[in-house]
Fold each of these.
Amino acid sequence: MKEICVRKEDLELLYEYALSHCKEVCPQERNPRTCLAMVKIGKLIGRYPPCVKSYGYFEKSFLKRMLKEIEIREGKRIKEFIKEMKKRNPRSLQEYEDSIDSEFIYNILEILEGEDDA
């Protein structure tokens, strides 16, 4: 991967601009890879996206616990639950939230695992 140098002030401006996207369209339109980039940049500049605490600063152990809680609540494995939610509409607000979070967290973990292997 090619590295580039950017002035911190410019990075902060870009981050602020991207953060407005987070505030306006998340969670309906979010890209796990972009979210991880925002968290990494936030760590560098000392300003995190608003969701970072809810997702345990995107630490793998925290995210895995979140998936386990969803599995327990929904009574099935995450992959099965995600697949089911793609076929039908959620039946409750909790199921709706779980469907959004489960797919997002699952994808985040796949990206993090891939980074560990690289």
Amino acid sequence: MTSPRLLLDLGNSRLKWAMSDGTELRFGAAVAHEPGGLGDLSPIWAAAAGAGSVWLSSTALSLSPALIQAVAERLDLETQVFVSPKEALGIRSAYDQPATLGSDRFLAMAGARAQVSGAFLVADAGTALTLDMVDDGGQHLGGLIVPSPV
């Protein structure tokens, strides 16, 4: 059995998390944070007991080092940071410099690809509204990011 992974999604206003053992995904609650700090992480620490690894997707780059340090101190684990590649998980990025595509957007497309066999559009409304189109072969056709109406 694979040891559980703590999956972290650090956005512009909230930190979302889930635990995965490779077959099942258990979602946790989102934790709000301010631009200058991470907020109360105690719900995450309580749920992460027994985690064997930590994976991070972050759009709040200024807070990433603080979160990585907190994970190291609290869980004694190194955090693996996801950077958008040119191709992985059934998605081929349209970006010439794929690392400039937000990891949250790449992973949202990969998640949709795992659920859909044809072409699809991913719409994500958080602090920003993002739209990304993918053809039936997994080629990212492009997208856009605008201020969110939410």
